[in-house]
Design brief:
The protein is of the alpha/beta class. Helix content is 32%, strand content 15%. It is built from 10 helices and 8 strands. β3, α1 and β4 form a beta-alpha-beta unit. α2 crosses α3 and α6 packs across α8. 43% of the residues are buried. About 4% of the residues have low confidence.
Length: 346
């Protein structure tokens, strides 16, 4: 069970900074970095933490600190977290969006390209190396998992391991609940506490915050995510040397998620912390338990097939964690990441 987290004292190894990408010099990205102390491996390891939409890099700081402390005696890999354009401490919007309709500029493929450029510059400036000489480990949550998969697909041979925490369901339009207007709709199959009218209301509220065409705070266009990654189980990823990468898939605690779904706010532009005090969409727990959770579990089982069977673990359930697993139980994430790092040494 996740325990309340004490106030965090960050290790001195974690350093904040900003960088302007050479292909977008008019905007700066805020990052947190720790130069690793374990250079036994060649190429050098770099663990990259990838945010969802409703969180920023601050949620990874306890995980980064935990890795430094846990691996302090034997050496830890280099660590990098960053806020995408328009997110967290990165106040600048993506320059690519200039002249575009609001929320209809850059997409996930552009984010992947920006991430690669960021790794080029961090590798050169901080590690005196190139991305080709780095062994990347991605730790990702929500849409960050989509970014991680797409990066590994577009830059084959670069990613040695992935820790996917409650991935966004990439091939979904977030139309998770039965459509009462469809010909095969059977109201008798609804949970006992959900009326047809309540179902309609929930479908409308759910679409208002989660549908791919809804504009988010960072103005990331999600409308083509299902086209970029239409399947959970493919494509299979290729790691360094043509080998399959290590993979751990983690999913939320179904009961905790169902409880939190009662609290998610109806303002899609808000941060998650704001949602807890905003108007709730109040998704009945029975709807989440009957429809959302089973759908997510099937998707997570499919993710295991993006690597070789002997390289995949999961889906593991993060007990007492909602969608933002790194926030709810950073120690759990530290343990899973530590396991991956040990496996990479074998």
């Amino acid at each position: 069970m996740a325990a309340p987290q004490p106030a965090l004292m960050l290790p001195r190894e974690l350093v904040n900074g900003t960088v302007a990408l050479s292909n977008k010099p008019t905007a700066s990205i805020h990052y947190t970095f720790a130069r690793g102390t374990d250079f036994r491996e060649s190429p050098r390891q770099l663990v990259v933490f990838l945010n969802g939409l409703m969180t920023d890099k601050s949620t990874w700081l306890p995980v980064m600190a935990g890795i430094i402390r846990k691996h302090g005696d034997i050496g830890f890999p280099s660590l990098l977290a960053y806020d995408r354009y328009g997110q967290g401490l990165t106040e600048d919007q993506d320059p690519q969006d200039q002249g575009c309709e609001k929320g209809r500029g850059h997409d996930v493929a552009d984010v992947v390209q920006d991430l690669h450029q960021l790794l080029v510059q961090i590798g050169t400036d901080k590690l005196n190396t190139t991305p080709e000489q780095l062994a990347l480990v991605f730790v990702a949550n929500s849409i960050g998992c989509v970014i991680a998969r797409l990066y590994a697909e577009r830059y084959p041979g670069s990613v040695t391991a992935l820790l996917l925490l409650d991935s966004m369901i990439s091939n979904s339009k977030f139309d998770w609940f039965p459509n009462p207007d469809s010909e095969d709709f059977n109201p008798q199959e609804l949970p006992a506490d959900v009326t047809v009218e309540a179902l309609r209301e929930q479908r409308a509220k759910f679409a208002a915050i989660f549908a791919p065409d809804v504009i988010n705070k960072e103005e990331l266009d999600r409308r083509n995510v299902a086209d970029l990654l239409p399947h959970s189980e493919r494509p299979q990823l290729i790691g360094p040397g043509g080998r399959r990468p290590l993979l751990i898939v983690v999913e939320h605690d179904p009961e905790r998620f169902a409880s939190e779904s009662l609290k998610v706010c109806a303002d899609a532009s808000s941060n998650f912390s704001d949602c807890l005090t905003s108007q709730s969409i109040g998704t009945p727990i029975s709807l989440s338990m009957k429809y959302s959770n089973p759908l997510w579990h099937r998707y997570n089982k499919g993710l295991l097939k993006i690597t070789a069977p002997e390289k995949a673990i999961g889906p593991l359930t993060a007990q007492d964690c909602g969608h933002f697993i790194q926030r709810d139980d950073p120690n759990f994430v530290v343990d899973q990441l530590s396991y991956l790092l040990r496996r990479l040494e074998l």
